[in-house]
């Protein structure tokens, strides 16, 4: 069976664990060459080694998305190793609980910087490389918490605000890039079985989705199968 991303080059943030890692694994199974940034270099090295044993081409780069200089460095690395990008997945994210009248300003800044500003900067740097592909896709990972009109949870303020902002990024990029043949979509999952979920909802919670469930939808949006879908927010409620 031919892979759905044969000869495609992807960048997946949050590659070290959770949804990002599951996406890298699935993309590699489908023939993509993948650039993988995250802070946990040991986890990235282990991922690269396990996927390269199966014939995949994986590039890893230690990157703190909270530092714009690290994002500049990441794109210098990508440009030194690839002439274009076909797909960008913004899967990195962070969560901290705290009511708006209690949470520290520094925590608010960190959440906005990772969940929103870093995705913005990644897209800004990636657009020239996606244009070279002639047929690029961007997939942003948001959350049901960032969807208008759905149930909200006490203490999720800065996280929810960051994800509402991400929808603004998705919508405006769709407008600006549609005519340039870059499709931009977003996925908003319910609870996913990752470290972040248990940090947010506690060890006893029972998330309805696996990282692989979400990765399958990322693959759909990244591949030609989903054309001409653009500017959409796919909400995943799970079982
Ligand atoms: N889990 C859920 O229930 C759920 C539900 C809805 C939406 N989401 C969203 O799904 C996305 C992925 O979350 P997840 O559940 O897979 O979380 P996770 O398992 O905690 O993984 C988070 C990823 O983001 C990376 N990251 C965090 N801060 C970073 C930084 N400063 N610089 C670089 N990378 C950073 C982490 O890498 P390092 O720590 O190695 O840097 C890790 O790879 C997030 O955007 C999250 O908001 C999750």
Layout of strands and helices, then pairs:
Blueprint: E1 9-12, H1 18-29, E2 33-38, H2 41-52, E3 58-62, H3 68-81, E4 87-90, H4 105-133, E5 137-141, H5 157-177, E6 183-189, H6 195-201, H7 211-222, E7 233-236
Parallel strand pairs: 1-2, 1-4, 2-3, 4-5, 5-6, 6-7
The chain binds NADP nicotinamide-adenine-dinucleotide phosphate (NAP).
Give descriptors for this structure.
239 residues, alpha/beta, Rossmann fold, seven-stranded parallel β-sheet, 7 strands, globular, binds NADP nicotinamide-adenine-dinucleotide phosphate
Can you put this structure into words, describing what you see?
It is a single chain. The protein has helices at residues 18-29, 41-52, 68-81, 105-133, 157-177, 195-201, 211-222; strands at residues 9-12, 33-38, 58-62, 87-90, 137-141, 183-189, 233-236. The protein is of the alpha/beta class. Strands 3-2-1-4-5-6-7 form a seven-stranded parallel β-sheet, with helices on both faces. The two termini are 28 Å apart. The mean pLDDT is 97. NADP nicotinamide-adenine-dinucleotide phosphate binds at residues 14-20, 38-40, 43, 63-66, 91-94, 114, 141, 143, 189, 191-192, 194-197, 207.
